[in-house]
Amino acid sequence: MAIRYELKGHLALIDANTPYAGLSPIVEVLTSAEFEAMKTIPEEAKEALREIQHAESSFIEVFSNFTLGSFAVPAKCDTKMASTCLIPSDPDLFAFYMDRESLVFVDDGTFAADILAELGKSGIMRRMTTAHCLYMFFKNLMVDDLVWLGKLEDSMESMEEEMLANQSKSTTTVIMGYRRLSMRFLTYYQQLASMASILADNENKILPKEEADAFDHASAMADRLVDRAETVNEYSGQLRELYQTRIDLRQNAIMQILTVVTVLFAPLTLITGWFGMNLEVIPGLQWAPMWALLLALFVISTIALLAVFQRKSFLQKIVK
């Protein structure tokens, strides 16, 4: 269903079902079918939008008389519940068309309409132009993301503390979920920074200079988010290394236990191997007290080995 806003003093919602007869700039949210049916949109723009609308990436194309762009906004998970970060979710996909007189968002969902509704309620738009509306739209996409990235990093820090205290039940799947999520947002912010930079360049000159310059600020915001997302992504890599280190330490402890057990039973293995040979004559085989002597030899050697292990702190390491 079409949604229309009039830029007249503020972002005002008006009837989208009747032809607009006013002189103020308008911003619309249309479905793909509604956009295709618009007679005022060039066929070149419609064809270009068909190609980019469902692409799962954010980018922009500049034409001589208009600008087209697409957004692929990844979903934010609940940082207090790591399991929600592991569930792959499709990004919100929508596009926009902007010329000198109009700004149209093409969205088969509700994401673009929800953001415009927030802008309308906030009343923070300073200039009633379509370019400024698009700039505020960009800012709204990133407004709370620094806080969310901080919460994501806090969640990862909690996992790290649990792993160091041997209290974590996290698996490689959880850690890789964090890594994929941070990489997804890092790519998204890089694409937003590129889009804002292209709009600031204003190659087709459809934006007034002061409006184009505002996108330099949007590009700087996206660059800060890129830096923050890179930090979070690097931290996820450190978590993975820490997890692998803990696995290696456990494997080493298991191998140490097996080594100690093998060494403790080595004397008994030697004795049973010697007297278990299928020979007719073995010295001492017929001597009655031999079994008691062998048992005493095994007990003494075991105690001696345990004493050596204790002195070398091998047993304490195994217990830990």
From TrEMBL:
Membrane topology: Multi-pass membrane protein
Keyword Cell cycle in record: no
GO molecular function per UniProt: cobalt ion binding; cobalt ion transmembrane transporter activity; magnesium ion binding; magnesium ion transmembrane transporter activity
UniProtKB keywords: Cell membrane, Membrane, Transmembrane, Transmembrane helix, Transport
Single GO cellular component term: plasma membrane
Compartments in which it is found: Cell membrane
Domain of life of the source: Bacteria
Keyword match Transmembrane: yes
Regions that span the bilayer: 253-276, 288-309
Pfam families: CorA (PF01544)
Family in the record: Belongs to the CorA metal ion transporter (MIT) (TC 1.A.35) family.
Name of the protein: Magnesium transporter
Source lineage: Bacteria, Bacillati, Actinomycetota, Coriobacteriia, Coriobacteriales
